[in-house]
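To whoever picks this up:

The nightly regression suite flagged Lipoprotein as changed. Nothing in the input moved, so I suspect the structure step. Input below, exactly as stored in the fixture:
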Amino acid sequence: MKVKLFFLCTLALSFVGCHFTETMVLNPDGSGTISVEANMNEMMAFGGAGMADSMFVKMDTIIYMKKFLEEKKDSIAKLPASEQQKLKKMEKFNLHIKMDTENSEMIYDISTNFKNISEANDIVNGIEQIDKMMPNDPNSETKKEDTPEVFGVNYTFDKGIFKRDAYIKNEKLHQQEVDSLQQAEAFMASSDYTLKYTFPRKIKKVSTPDAVISEDKKSLTLQRPFLDYYKNPDVLDLEVVLEK
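Regenerated output under the current build:
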């Protein structure tokens, strides 16, 4: 995912830890829910202290993207067809924003329900599109419309086997972004990316030895340093075989 307004850009500018959590619950029929949360409480407590001193913000709101896109339909109609298609895929997503500067709290969460796990593949695109939809700059859509996607994630669930495969879509742009983060690496060491998955049946086998499996064997947790994941998304690739 790109260094976007709510997520990676905030992380890079704050120079303190940001914790990403990707949560998925799979149902027996292959439907389920997926969310990606960015917890920036640490940034608010340290890097965001200046903002907290100068202004007080308290909000807890959910943006329903289908409604939001409808409100922006005139602007969206001016975008190239390819960009309109990307935004169309966001209709099922909801964005939860919780911010309390007085108590050093800042959390963003993008989530969706899916009937088939292939629909979850669009969550990375959803995160990348959020910045384009913010109304701060009326020309932002035009400026960013041709920016290529950097990452992709492919989820599959077939015959009791779940797979998560993250990959780089644009090698050149990815390397540019990795290079741009080098100066901040020492400050971002505490940032991490965690997977939390729950399955409809017990886990028989998992491809990653250090994944933590729950007592009921239906859930797992896997964590990696965020920079490791950003540099090489394969570190969070996963294959889970369920019991029959």
